[in-house]
Specification:
Family: Belongs to the methylglyoxal synthase family.
Largest sheet: 5 strands, parallel
CATH superfamily: Methylglyoxal synthase-like domain
Function: Catalyzes the formation of methylglyoxal from dihydroxyacetone phosphate.
Strand content: 15-25%
Strand order of the largest sheet: 3-2-1-4-5
Distance between the termini: 12 Å
GO molecular function: methylglyoxal synthase activity
CATH class: Alpha Beta
Protein name: Methylglyoxal synthase
Enzyme class: lyase
Structural class: alpha/beta
């Protein structure tokens, strides 16, 4: 049974996440990948990795990833966060981080932690 990894990034971090996914493409190809809509499409365009697209983050994609965590259907979360830009859906982002913490799901918020989380699998 393949591990499931969620991928999401704030707008100003989508390029960083796409570059990271390109760098670790061979490793990511071993997993079932889920991503919020806009982020996931950017990654697909850059890498051709098979990714299940959820809603865009502000439209509920963050909540969908959170529900997957609660149901035990997500083994890791990579969420490249932009710490310098206010987000209108910040409450959703905080809820997702809270759930990853509460359910002890490995959570990466930047390239360094994403590299570390990927070594766990």
């Amino acid at each position: 049974m393949s591990k499931k990894i969620g991928l999401v990034a704030h707008d100003k971090k989508k390029q960083d996440l796409t570059v990271w996914c390109s760098q670790v493409k061979e490793k990511l190809a071993q997993y079932d990948l889920f991503a919020t809509g806009t982020t996931g499409q950017a990654i697909i365009d850059a890498t051709q990795l098979p990714i299940t697209l959820l809603k865009s983050g502000p439209l509920g994609g963050d909540a969908q990833l959170g529900a997957m965590i609660v149901e035990g259907e997500l083994d890791g979360l990579v969420f490249f966060i932009d710490p310098l830009t206010a987000m209108p859906h910040d409450v959703d982002v905080k809820a997702l981080i809270r759930l990853a913490t509460l359910y002890d799901v490995p959570f990466a918020c930047n390239k360094a932690t994403a590299d570390a989380v990927l070594t766990l699998f």
